[in-house]
Amino acid sequence: MSFRIACLIAVLGFAHSTFAQQEVTKTETSAGITYVRSNTADGMCQCFSLVGASSTFVWNAGERYSGVVDVGYQRSTNINSSGNSLGLMTYMAGPRISFRGRKYTLFGQALAGGVRANSSGVYNNASGFAGSAGGGLDFQLTQRLSWRILQADYLLTRVPNGSNDIQNNIRFTTGIVVRLGGISGRGPRRPYNRPF
C-alpha cells in the first residue's frame, strides 16, 4: 500500500514539474461574434435567430475565481419572414470559475443584469431583467492572446411580448481574448495545470 502511494506521489511530482508556468493576468478583455437562438412570444418554438457582437471585461481575483462584466448586442431584421425586426442589448455581471491547463482554459459563469429590446413591432420596446448561465473554452495562442473557441450560455430575458413576458434563449459566442497586466506583487503563478 505504501509503495503505491509513493509511486503515485512520484508520478504526480514528475507530471507537475513538466508543466510550463502560465501567467494568470490581473485582467482580460474579449470581443466576439454572437449568435442567439430565441423563441417566439407564445413559447412554442417557432424560433428565430439574432446575430451580433459581445464583449467582456474580466478581473481575476486569483487562478480560479473572477468577476465578469458582459455587454452584447444582437439583431434580427426579419423575424420568421414577418417583416418585424428585433434588437437586444444585454449588460450583465457576475462570478466566473476557471480551470486552466497549459493551453486550454475551461470556465463557467453565472451573470445577471438587464436587457434593452428595440422592435419594429408592437411589443419588445422595453427594458427588463436578463440573466445567463453557461461556460466556454479558450485556447492560448500567445502569452497574451487566446481564441475563445466556443462559449455557450442559456440567456433568460424578461421583456413585454404580449404573452408571458419571458424569453428563453441560447447564446453562442466565438472570438478573441486579450490578457492585460499581471497579478501584482506575486509575479508569475502556477495555475491548476492539467495535461490538456
Would you mind describing this structure in some detail?
By secondary structure, the chain is mainly beta. It has one domain (25-180): Porin (Beta Barrel). Helix content is 9%, strand content 57%. It contains 1 helix and 8 strands, in the order αββββββββ. The protein has an 8-stranded antiparallel barrel. A hairpin with a 6-residue loop joins strand 5 (104-119) and strand 6 (126-140). It is elongated. Mean pLDDT is 82; it is low at 10-21 and 184-189.
The H/E string reads: HEEEEEEEE
Mean pLDDT: 82
Query: Would you state the CATH class?
Result: Mainly Beta
Q: Can you summarize the main beta sheet? A: 8 strands, antiparallel, barrel
Determine the fraction of residues in helical runs and give it as a percent range.
under 10%
CATH level 3 topology: Porin
Overall number of strands: 8
Low-pLDDT windows of residues: 10-21, 184-189
Strand content: over 45%
